[in-house]
Design goal:
Strand content: 15-25%
Shape: globular
Number of helices: 12
Number of domains: 1
Strand order of the largest sheet: 1-2-3-4-5-8-9-12
Number of strands: 12
Radius of gyration: 22 Å
CATH topology: TIM Barrel
Helix content: 40-55%
């Protein structure tokens, strides 16, 4: 027969377990699926694309975003070769930075063969810091998004700092956001350039919730306006990663353009930093 003492002991153990359980239920998780924008290792990719990809895979990189180069969009490899090399190394060719130019149709077709999900315009197709130009650009982006969708691709745009200039009281980036179709234009937010321009990425997460499926995770020396290793600049990386849901984040890509030593040493430093973060 169970005694009152046994009942109280059992109930107490259950209550204690209930207090402890949330620690395990809500345990902080490691950062998953880190990616890289290959412009970070542009010289190395041009010299030895497959060897450089192998080094990145050894560092734990899982997602790849290519960039146009003097050897094409895949550093001398075909789209299929790039896709297959990444797959062999346990990585995914997820995205690519390109320009909307006379070779746009070819660029889209190559990306479709490469099996990537996103095609990202890396700079404004028409220069001019005016509201009208940004509205015209939004029209170009909507059309490009439609064209990409027919080939199973998602089109997007990657910002710098100049898009955050104000004209007649309006932020030009906001003009672009307000005049693009969210179903056709998927924004890649370069967080380094957002903070370097004096803006708050969290405010953009709130204002345009779910509009930023891609990030460039780039820490910035705010005085020099140069990229730097994670934790050395003005970007609150742990806080940003804890608010990825508001952004609509699917993938992020490490991007670093300046280095304390060598590109690979900086990428390793960045990966070690991410390894220590729990969200």
């Amino acid at each position: 027969m169970k005694t009152r003492r046994h009942f109280l002991k059992t109930a107490g153990a259950f209550a204690l377990g209930s207090m402890i359980l949330p620690e395990f239920t809500f345990a902080l998780a490691k950062i998953k699926n880190p990616g890289i924008q290959l412009y970070s290792v542009r010289t190395e990719m041009l010299a030895d694309a497959k060897g450089t990809l192998k080094q990145l895979a050894a560092l734990g990189i899982k997602q790849i975003e290519s960039a146009s180069s003097s050897k094409g969009n895949y550093y001398g490899l075909t789209g299929k070769e790039m896709r297959d090399t990444c797959k062999e190394l346990g990585m995914t060719l997820r995205s690519g930075h390109v320009s909307i130019n006379s070779k746009w149709q070819q660029t889209m077709e190559e990306a479709a063969v490469a099996g990537q999900e996103y095609l990202i315009c890396s700079s404004m197709p028409k220069s001019g810091q005016t509201i009208d130009n940004y509205k015209r650009t939004a029209e170009i982006f909507n059309k490009s998004g439609e064209e990409c969708r027919t080939l199973g691709l998602k089109f997007g745009y990657h910002n710098h700092d100049y898009e955050f200039d104000k004209v007649d009281g309006q932020i030009l980036y906001d003009v672009l956001m307000d005049n693009t179709d969210p179903k056709l234009v998927h924004m890649e937010l370069d967080l380094g350039w957002v903070v370097a321009s004096g803006n708050d990425p969290f405010e953009y997460f709130k204002k345009y919730k779910g509009r930023f499926p891609l990030w460039h995770l780039k820490d910035m020396d705010l005085q020099k306006k140069h990229s730097t290793e994670f934790g050395k600049g003005g970007l609150d990386i742990p806080k940003l990663l804890k608010h990825q849901k508001e952004s609509g984040l699917k993938y992020f890509f490490i991007e670093q353009e300046e280095y304390a030593k060598t590109p690979m040493e900086s990428i390793k430093y960045d990966m070690d930093y991410l390894e220590r973060i729990r969200i």
